[in-house]
Design brief:
By secondary structure, this protein is an alpha+beta fold. It is 16% helix and 42% strand. The strands form 2 sheets. The protein has a 15-stranded antiparallel β-sheet that branches. It has a two-stranded parallel sheet with strand order 1-2. The protein is globular. The two termini are 43 Å apart.
Length: 405
């Protein structure tokens, strides 16, 4: 059975709950399937990126491999807590061979051993939709183009182009064709540079209170049962037009225990600008931020890229044996203050022109117990999340959760 069907069957992914980030995660698994890792040389980060392994299972695998390299992938059955299901999954992402020490690489080899993939999609309705007769400015067809390249697990790059139904194409304000375009280029594990990414990217630190993702791992209890990957910088390879950063981000391995991540982002967001005083632009505010990325009408183009946002931040992680500690902070400034219309659901939304968040995240693993959580402080107050997980045996988990927002 293909790896994707095995994993999807276990996750029970609901099409009604999926988003671009859900399929982006599956695309990440596809890359791991195409570029398998020698399990005898695996590290904790690589195992944590697989959603079906618990912290206890990861610890047992690392301890076993450290003591004695594997001869066969099915030797994992000798490890406490590893069953046939986990082995069937891991066989799709790992291979077994003796460790080869070869630190020689060059930029010439990066392009020599690269692998590229180009995909496209085109939807053309065979009937005239009512909304396209007068309201929308562009044709009703939909198109997207995706390209990605990966080489030796060192270099990654790619771009996305998308035109939604009803958006102009090589016309009006879309003079260059596609309404949405995204690119990234990333360099991995070169000297002390663990990750260097230029372009569009996503971040995940701690439990996500300060900086995190809302992928399908956040939709269910699975996000609490399996370890989150702190200090994660990922390329943005989906057509989600809102949930990403644009700029540069990097993670440096300062030592075996310390990692420092820094990031800068500059974006132009869609927003509705209200002028309190026609003669004084400084009194203008943004009342609504639009997240759909659709530009089909004159009104959509009036609100396009009105809000300019800059963000800078740092994350420092410390890992030693079973203890993980980290601190994350960022500062954000907009060209216009953000003051949404007062509603019951947005009374706790952050408001103003500048924003900040700072948080401390932690994790401690001991035998069958795991404690993890995060404390965060922002302009609007304090938030925390803590979980205590007890794993007495395979397929049995007892979880205590405390949240304060």
């Amino acid at each position: 059975m293909p790896w994707s069907l095995l994993l999807l069957d276990d996750i029970n992914l609901d099409e009604n709950l999926t988003s671009e980030e859900d399929w982006e995660y599956l695309d990440e698994l596809k890359k791991k399937y195409q570029h398998k890792i020698n399990i005898n040389a695996v590290n904790r980060d690589e195992l944590q990126r697989l959603s079906f392994l618990s912290e206890k299972q990861i610890e047992n695998i690392l301890a076993y491999v450290y003591q004695q390299p594997l001869i066969s992938i099915y030797e994992l059955m000798l490890i406490d807590g590893i069953g046939k299901k986990e082995i069937d999954y891991m066989a799709h992402f790992f291979y077994v061979e003796p460790i080869k020490v070869d630190n020689h690489w060059s930029f010439k080899n990066l392009f020599k051993y690269s692998k590229s993939e180009l995909s496209s999609r085109f939807d053309y309705p065979l009937y005239k939709r009512v909304g396209y007769k007068e309201k929308y400015l562009g044709p009703s067809w939909y198109s997207t183009i995706r390209y990605k390249m990966k080489s030796l697990n060192k270099l990654e790059c790619g771009f996305n182009l998308e035109k939604d139904s009803g958006e102009p194409f090589f016309a009006l304000d879309n003079k260059y064709g596609y309404d949405y375009n995204s690119f990234y280029i990333a360099l991995n594990d070169v000297g002390i540079v663990k990750k260097l990414l230029v372009g569009n990217y996503k971040l995940q630190f701690g439990e996500g209170l300060v900086m995190g993702s809302n992928s399908f791992m956040m939709h269910s209890l699975r996000s609490l049962l399996y370890p989150s990957l702190s200090g994660s910088i990922k390329n943005h390879s989906s057509n989600d037009e809102f949930n990403y950063f644009s700029g540069v981000a990097t993670t440096l391995s300062l030592s075996k225990s310390f990692e420092l991540s820094s990031f800068y982002s500059y974006r132009k967001l869609d927003g509705k600008v209200i002028n309190k005083d026609v003669n004084k632009d400084m009194n203008s505010i943004v009342q609504t931020i639009y997240k759909t990325g659709l530009h089909q009408t004159k009104s959509d183009f009036l609100h396009r890229k009105k809000l300019k946002q800059q963000l800078v931040g740092l994350n420092l992680d410390f890992n030693y044996n079973n203890i993980s500690l980290g601190i994350t902070g960022y500062y954000c400034v907009n060209n216009y203050p953000y003051y949404p219309q007062k509603r019951n659901y947005n009374c706790y939304y952050p408001k103003g022109k500048t924003f900040y968040n700072i948080g401390i995240h932690y994790s401690y693993f001991w035998r069958n117990f795991r404690l993890r959580g995060e404390l965060a402080k922002g302009k609007k107050g304090f938030a925390s999340i803590s979980t205590l997980l007890y794993h007495p045996r395979i397929n049995v988990d007892i979880l205590l959760l405390h949240r304060y927002y």
